[in-house]
Design a protein that fits this description.
The complex is a heterodimer of chains A (about 100) and B (about 260). Chain A is mainly alpha-helical. Chain A has two domains: about 60 residues; about 40 residues. Helix content of chain A is about 75%, strand content about 0%. Chain A is built from three helices and no strands. Chain B has a domain of about 160 residues: Cytochrome c oxidase, subunit III, four-helix bundle (Four Helix Bundle (Hemerythrin (Met), subunit A), Up-down Bundle). Chain B has about 260 residues and is mainly α. In chain B, about 75% of the residues lie in helices and about 0% in strands. Classes of the chains: A mainly alpha (about 100), B mainly alpha (about 260).
Amino acid sequence: MKTSPAHIVEVRVLLAVFAALIMLTVVTVAVSYFDLGAFNLVVAMSIATIKAALVAFWFMHLRYDSGLHAFIFLVGVAFLGFFLIITMLDAVTYHPAVQTWEQSK
Amino acid sequence: MTESHIPNMQEGNDGGPDAHLAHHFSSPAQQYDAARLGMWIFLMTEILFFGGLFCAYAVYRANNPQIFVDGHRFLDKPLGAANTVLLIFSSLTMALAVRAVQLGRRRWLVGLLAITILCGLAFLGVKAIEYKHKWDHRMVPGQARIAYWFSRGETSEPLKKFQPDEAYVKERLAQAGFEDLDQAEYDQRVKHLGTYMGIYFSLTGLHALHVVAGIVAISWILVGAVRDRFGSNYFTPVDLGGLYWHLVDMIWIYLFPLLYLIH
């Protein structure tokens, strides 16, 4: 049996992840000054997701950890995705009716 | 039977590898795995806890994108960016603290935990400055109700008195290129600002509560570290506290672009 199941991450790896996170923060702020149309949100969320993955896989040790932990975490993310999609389907479907009602007031 | 096989008989981390082993686990490794599994399940529920507010955000933004474009003009981008950097830095110091305890370096552990707590407090300080600014300009949700509470019925026109600060709103809109708005246009733009502010305060408020909880947890870990309760063979609380702190950082990583960086 393993006596210590924990992985010790090297300092230079942690510093590299930190540098990448700061760099991506600068990028996401810089990008926000340009209008990319429909891609504004896509770009901002993609950068945020890369940052979140860096935090999860290196700072939170998921990369070195039991796959079960990553699975649990991703199940949470997947269910959040389901909730968002199903709620949005409903909201978008009824939005024209709401607008008509607002204008008729 | 040697001393090290009697659980909880000795204080400190020099009580042998099994000093912290609860009797229902067969080994420290199994106990540590169980603790981490429990923590990850808790973190999953935290994602879903915030999920409700993210859903509200998505619905309001999809149906009223203009409110969000207007609303973000009243947030301070440099302060939001500063807070992002603070939280990312505190995540680094927390990850380094976990490494320090794994290697049994107590002085480093104490120092890094203290820096993490200070960064958390600085984050809350910046947040307080931002909240104060919004309160001063009456950029808060539910102005009418707040006015009603505070006027205790003495204000004849509570609704008007607690509308967002008109001069301030016009100044910010002018900076964004919307000058000389007539009253109808102005009213139209201000009408739903409270909705944006409601979402802003709910999301950042719930997040700030998590920062407070994280600071309390890490302070408790710091006390344990000062008392030499953790070492290379027992560091579960440091590890789990770190996981929680990183999750709080991760949620802010999404809140920052969603609230501050709208184009």
